[in-house]
Amino acid sequence: MCINKTPKLKSTEAPKCTKQVRNSFFTKETRTVKQLWEKCLLTFIATVISLSVGASNLLAQNGVTALYEPTPQVAAPQGYYVADAVDLEARISQLESQLKKKQDKPDPKKGFTRVIDGRVYFDSYSIDQKGCDTGNTNLTSRTNYNGIRDLRVGVKGEGYNIFDYKVDLCFIEATGSGSNRSGVNLKDVWFGVKNVPFLEYVRIGHYRLEEGVSVLTGGTNTTFLEFDGRDFATGRRIGISSRHLWARDQIRFFAGFFYNQDLAKNERYQLRDDQGSVTNLRLTFLSNVSRKEGKIDGKRFLLFGGNYSYFDANKSSPGVYTAASFTERFATVDQMTLATYTIPTNGYHKFGLEFAAQNGPFSVQSELYVNQYNSVAINGTTKDRTIFGSYVTVRYFLTGDYRKFSADNAAWGAVDLKHNLDLRKVGDYNFAEHLGAWEIAAKWGYTETSQLFGLSNGVFAGSVNDFTLGLNWYWTSNARWLFDYIHAVPSQMRNNANRDHSDTDIFAASFRYNF
């Protein structure tokens, strides 16, 4: 122990007692820390061992004997040599060929589909005609009309994603005289095949000739009670045709060959040696199109097209041609026949130009029709005679809807409604949004037949100007009301210098439902 007498030390030396005390202090602290780490390490090791034992027991209970099992080595089969790999490509090719045959084989579970469709039209016409000073009854003597205009039922469908078909039978149809045709009349009865080499799509049967966008739109999706250009439409014939689509469905070409016989008015066949023929061509171009999921939806597009047909007149007997027929109407109204021309000719040409455009709710459509009849003898003069007609239609949906467009047919489709009519929403703040679709439309049409003046069947040739205003209310895409006001001004020739005129006002309404 050191009390008072401490030897003098150098400045670098610490007192012995101080050093001993410091060494004693750090030795004790170091011992304490070392013991603490040892206890922590032992506790960690014990915990790991406990967890390992618990995990092993749990895996054993679930049938797992090891967390990792090496991949077993599969011994090479006897008789297999590296040289056999040469046949591997051939074996894969054979398997792919067998798989393709299995995929191409028609699946009986995906056979022909069947969808029942049809339509019913209720039409009403109220006619107000101004009298003709010369007593020309062709320009007067029209009566009002009310009744079931059309009743059709049919079936359509597809088969194996290759075929399609349609059978459409008409049970009630008003004629131009306002009476009803009795019995069952044939309409569309055809069968189609897709993906035909070089021909693409082939159809055979009884169906419409392609003479413009309005004719192919037909009655189901028309804007007015009658489709535009009805007077110049040939109608349906028995034939075969091919259709091609190019440039992502924007270019379409149609070619068909038909018999020149109309199977209407309950006729199912024609018994005649020379039944005549019709060659029908149509070419259309679409530009500035809008698409939905890669397909043309018709919300925006421009359509330009043309069509041509040549009619080789059939013969009622050797060397005697059956005369062509052309029916002229007031604004194409079926119940308002103005004149039916029987035109003696051995054949005639039909030309057509077509244009249509749509941008959302606004659309415009126009067509020009020209019929040229060969060697028509009138009043001792034989020469080619020409008649023509045209129209312009403008439409607008007040509710912002638009008409669909079919690229396959190059024709208008059903209206794409934002909201159907829903009377359950009466009283709601947004009830106006559930009133269906509202469309306004206007049309001007013109037909000129003056070159047929003097035909021996006593009709008077001339011209017809008509103006139509329309209001359409769509409850759904397949149920609608049509309201038309038509002002027609027919002008018929009495001689080369004078014509008879008459103003005609027609108020028409129709409820139409198709399914």
Q: Can you give a write-up of this model?
A:
- This protein is mainly β.
- 13% of the residues lie in helices and 47% in strands.
- Strands 1-2-3-4-5-6-7-8-11-16-17-18-21-22-23-25 form a 16-stranded antiparallel barrel. Strands 9-10 form a two-stranded antiparallel sheet.
Query: Any low-confidence stretches, pLDDT <50, length ≥5?
Result: 1-7, 9-26, 64-69
End-to-end distance: 120 Å
Supply Rg: 43 Å
Q: Strand portion, in percent?
A: over 45%
Listing every helix as H and every strand as E from the N terminus to the C terminus, the arrangement reads HHEEEEEHEEEEEEEEEEEEEEEEEEEE
Kindly state the mean pLDDT as a whole number?
79
What percent of residues adopt helix (DSSP H or I)? 10-25%
Record keyword descriptors for this entry.
515 residues; mainly beta; 16-stranded antiparallel barrel; two-stranded antiparallel ribbon
